[in-house]
Amino acid sequence: MQAQKFDVLIVGAGPAGAACAIKLANTGLAVALLDKATFPRDKTCGDALSVDVVNQLAMLSDKLATEFSALAAKVPSYGVKIFAPNHQHVDIPFFHKNQKSCGYICQRLDFDNLLFQHLKEYKNIQVIENCTVEQVLPQADGLLAKTNRGEFTANIIVGADGAHSVVAKHLGPIKVEKDHYSAGLRVYYEGVTSFHDDNYIELHFFKDILPGYLWVFPLPDNKANVGIGVLSEVVSEKKLNLKEVLQKLLQTTPNLQERFKDARPLETVKGYGLPLGSKPRNISGERFLLTGDAASLIDPFSGEGIGNAIRSGRVAAEHILNCFEHQNFSAEFNRAYDKEIYRRMWKELKVSHSLQKLCRYPWLFNFVVKKGNQSKYLKQFLIEALANVEIKRLLTKPGFYYRMLFK
Fold first, then answer.
1. Within 13 Å of residue 261, how many CA atoms lie on the same side as its CB?
2. Which of 121, 269, 324, 334 has the fewest Cβ atoms within 10 angstroms?
3. 3-state DSSP call for residue 8?
4. What is the pLDDT of residue 95?
5. What is the DSSP letter of 132?
6. Confidence of residue 176 (pLDDT cuts 50, 70, 90)
7. CA 365, 367, 368, 370 torsion: positive or negative?
C-alpha cells in the first residue's frame, strides 16, 4: 500500500495539534492531523481553562471563539481560592487588563471535541481518527510515519501527542526527569458542596506534598473535578501512594471532609504525567517540531498546560509557513522555533519554577496567605500578580518578604 503524501503531519489532535492545524487552514498546504483516539474522547486533566486560553481562541478563529461562548458544558470561574498548609485561605479574583475577568472549567471531553469538530470545516486539513503512530523515520526528502492505518509522508511533522510523545521518542532528545516532572491523579465527583458563589477554583497545599497541591474545581450539574499533582521526585523520596494520599486528605482535612461527606466518585481514579517547563529544552530538529506537553511546556507552579499548548501550536504553524517559504526544514533553521517559543514563554516559566521551589516551605506559604488576608495592599498585589508576570516575579525576591515582615 502506497504512503499517503502530505506537506505537514500533525500527530495529536488536542489543543496544541488543533491550534497548529487551524492556523495552517486555508494556506494551501496539505495537512494531515492524526489522533489515536476517536472523538469525543476523555483527557485526564484538571479541566481549568485560564483567561489566557479563552483569549487565544479568538486568535485562532472568531468563529471558534463564538462556538466556545455558546458551549453549555462549562462553568465560568472568576477567581482562585488558595489554601495554605495550615488550612487558612485567601481568595484572589481574576483580572485581565484591570477588568474583572473569568476563566472556565470545562471537561476536556467537551473542550477538545469543540476544537476537533471545528477543524472539519477546513478543506486542506484531513483529520484521521483511530490512527496510532507507531514509528517515525527520516527519509532523504522528508519523513515517514508508520501507523495502524497505513503510512504517511510529509516535509515536516509536529509532535502534539502529549507527555509520552511518539514523535519525541523517535526524533527528539526529551527524557523524563523526576525533578522536572509531576505525577497527577483525577477523579470526577458529584455532590461536593460549598463552592464559592463565583465558582472559584480551589488549590489546597499540604505540607507532605509540597510543592504539589490538591485541587477541587466546580463543573456543571453539581459535579467537580478533583485531583492531586505532586512532583515526581517527591513521590519517589517519600514513597507516596497518591491514591491513598488523595483519599486521606479528602476524608480528614477540616475544610474538605464535611464537603465530601455525601459526595460520590463517578469514575475510578485516573493517572497522568505532567512534563514541566522548568528548564529550557531542545524542542525541534531535522523536519520536526514539538508542541504542548510533548515539548514540556506545562507551568511548573500551577500545572496549567492548555494555554501554552495552544500558543505553541500557533507558533509552530507560523514557523512551518516560514519553512515552506524558504524550503528549509533543517534542524538549524528550526532552532528559530525554539527561540520564539522561549521568547514568549520562558520568562513566566522561569518565575513559576522559582515559585515552585519557594512552595517547599510551609511556613512561608502560611505567612503569605495570612498577610494576604490582613493587608489590602498585599491582596491587590496578589490579584495583579496572577495576570502580570513582572509583578509575579517580585514574589521570588527576598526583599518582598522582608517588606511584608517589617512593614
1. 7
2. 121
3. strand
4. 81
5. -
6. confident
7. positive
- Residues 368-394 have a mean pLDDT of 86
3-state helix vs strand vs coil in the chain, percent to 5? 40, 25, 35
- Nearest Cα neighbor of 19 from 167, 164, 157, 119 is 119
Q: Per CATH, is 4-75+104-177+277-355 categorized as 3.40.50.2000?
A: no
| String of DSSP letters for 19-59 | HHHHHTTTSS--EEEE-SS-SS----S--EE-HHHHHHHHH
Q: Which three cell numbers stand for residue 322?
A: 516560514
Through-space distance between the first and last CA atoms of the chain, rounded to whole angstroms: 74
Report pLDDT digits (tens) over 211-229: 999 999 999 988 999 999 9
Largest Cα separation within the chain, whole Å, is 74
pLDDT in tens, 293-324: 999 999 999 999 999 999 999 999 999 999 99
Q: Say if residues 151 and 145 touch (Cβ distance below 8 Å).
A: yes
Q: Give the whole-angstrom CA distance, residue 310 versus residue 83.
A: 29
What is 167-224 written as a DSSP string?
A: HHHHH------GGGEEEEEEEEEE------TT--EEEE--GGGTT-EEEEEEETTTEE
CA 392/CA 349 separation, integer angstroms: 11
Q: How far apart are CA 302 and CA 203, in angstroms?
A: 9
State yes or no: pLDDT of 265 exceeds 80: yes
Neighbour-count burial for 308-336, b at 16+ CB within 10 Å, e otherwise: bbbbbbbbbbebbbebbeeeebeeebbee
At 384-405, the pLDDT tens digits run 888 888 888 888 888 877 777 7
Look up the pTM and report it.
Answer: 0.95
Task: Return the CA Rg of the chain.
Answer: 21
Q: Could you tell me how far CA 402 lies from the centroid of its own chain?
A: 33
Domain positions in the chain: 4-75+104-177+277-355
E strands in 107-180: 125-128, 133-139, 142-147, 150-154, 156-159
Strand pairing report for 288-290 and 156-159: parallel
* Three-class SS of 356-396: HHHCCCHHHHHHHHHHHHHCHHHHHHHHHHHHCHHHHHHHH
Q: Rounded to whole angstroms, how far apart are CA atoms 202 and 213?
A: 10
Query: 285 with 294: CB under 8 angstroms?
Result: no
